[in-house]
Amino acid sequence: MSMKFPIERFRKAATPLYYYDMELLQQTLDKIKGSVSRYGFNVHYAMKANANPAILRRISEAGFGADTVSGGEIAAAINAGFKAEDIVFAGVGKTDGEILQCGAADDTKVHAVEGAVICRTAFPYWIPDNDSGALPYAL
């Protein structure tokens, strides 16, 4: 992978300045996709890392999913072109509105991390099958 850092352009720019090398991002996405494709993994981008719409669009166009922790992140993911079935919503302390927002987004996957959330939903829920004794699925 190569990186071109246009330092001369930055000397004239106001600060703070955020520079994203979209070519390098695409190369990275291609490398990740090639590495995981042989295993059948689904890669989800953590929306909290960077919610820049251009970055999100590029990641969604590359076929990745979105890992979200808030209603705002779900909206940003959908606006950036992520398919609802490729959005995972996880974390603790969810509001009723955020949970309903998942249901409104059709196939958004909700990862249950606290029992109280399950009691407040009316749509299918995915629960990890792990050492905690949780069931693989709950409806």
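The record above closes out task 2.4. Task 2.5 opens with a second protein, given below.
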Amino acid sequence: TPVYDRAQVMYHAIDLIMERKEELGTLLMTEMGKPITQSRKEAVDAAVIARSFTEKACHMYGDVLPTDNQPGGQNDIIFTKREPLGVIGCIIPFNYPVKMFVHKVIPALLTGNAVIVKAPTNNPLTLMRLTEILNKAGLPEGLLKCVACERDVCNKWLVENDQVNGISLTGSTAAGINMQKRSAETLKHVFLELGGNDATIVREDADLDYAVKEITAGRMVNAGQTCCACKRILVHTAVYDTFVEKLTKAISEVKTGDPAAEDTLVGCLVSEKAARKVKEQIDLTVSQGAEIAIGGQQKGAVLMPTVIKNVTPDMEVLLLLTGRAITVIQNRALVVSR
């Protein structure tokens, strides 16, 4: 189908997403505990992102290169034409599934590919609903499929499949390394967005109230389950104690609880297993000599927002190994070091 026809399908799908943003937001909130305001906003953001990709697809041009700058080339034309890769496997993370679905799937479809979506194991339902919406918008039958399966099944039937031409993964560094290895046998195109260990630096002359405001928002949204969240804070010794006091007070005022409440900022983690892992990581850091300024309690999938202070460079939470930053505290905990 020509790009124009693909774009018309996408515009219809975008309208349907906006019409059903409340349904999508509620479903996302229910299956992963993300507060309703953030879940609803994710659905709206997805529609905006999809529209941007659709507009761009209508202006995807090839290049025409001059050839009359060499002998005998004056009658030649060299041009490029963009062709689809074929079948693309899109492996979606649990933390922002709706937005990442749109980031991966919409461009692949607009450029003429077929797509198999591997939904996150803990919360696949919203992506299945999104797949229904896109198919309802007029995609050719079978062009877009969504599956939920364990990692081993995914590796065997998607990553190692010689009929799949490309893989797009958002996940951990370890998952990315594994993906590269498994895809090499069939020489797939691989697109990776992997983990990080983002630091916030608070200097001696910083506006501490502003820093605390930005750090609190940057870490607490989506219960800290965000790839670019403020994971560790490096604070100048001269303002350290004052900063920790202000940060602890701000965290104590964060509204936690029922994700269905419009004023809740922090709900639960995606699963009880995830919360237990974070609790173990907090306990490990404390056993190495750090202190909990606030929080640290875990029950089920809920882990209270936590600030860990007096972290030193020799602790595992700040360990640097072979040039790759390794963070122990992954979700909902702020690690503060001098």
